[in-house]
Design a protein that fits this description.
Blueprint: H1 4-28, H2 32-44, E1 47-48, H3 49-56, H4 60-72, E2 76-80, E3 88-92, H5 94-114, H6 120-138
Antiparallel strand pairs: 1-3, 2-3
Length: 147
């Protein structure tokens, strides 16, 4: 039986995340999904789609849809790997690098505003709690006992 405080915690966690993401997207003009791709490519340089899927922890089909949109907006370029034609590599274009640079200041501004009311102690406590939850969830057995 689920305790009501467990359910309320999970609902609050989801609602807080959705509110945070909506605010980020409204402030920066970038979807969180595309922003994560752009930032990773900016930090790592050229990457294969397979590496992007692994690093971002997203579905390959979802990544492909995002990359097609970013490619149409001239922010990324995709091409076959020179060593392994089975791989498709992705790199930022000049326009993509400009978007990352211009959006980074907006991102920082949003983060500073969003977290302004939380003390370092609050953030440390919340971070430890979220890490603990994530580690527990990662250890979930393949099957749980069904009643």
């Amino acid at each position: 039986m689920i305790d009501s405080h467990h359910l309320q915690f999970i609902q609050l966690l989801g609602r807080s995340y959705r509110t945070f993401v909506a605010g980020f997207e409204a402030h920066t003009g970038q979807s969180m999904a595309r922003w994560r791709i752009l930032v990773l490519l900016d930090r790592q340089g050229e990457m294969s789609q397979k590496q992007l899927v692994q690093e971002l922890g997203i579905d390959p089909a979802a990544l492909t849809r995002q990359l097609k949109a970013l490619e149409q907006a001239d922010m990324v370029r995709r091409h076959s790997d020179a060593q392994d034609a089975r791989l498709t590599n992705v790199t930022l274009t000049k326009a993509g690098r400009k978007v990352v640079a211009s959006t980074m200041a907006q991102r920082n501004e949003y983060l500073e505003w969003a977290l302004a009311d939380l003390s370092v102690e609050d953030m440390n406590t919340l971070s430890k709690t979220l890490v603990k939850l994530e580690q527990h969830l990662a250890q979930r057995p393949n099957t749980l006992k069904k009643t």
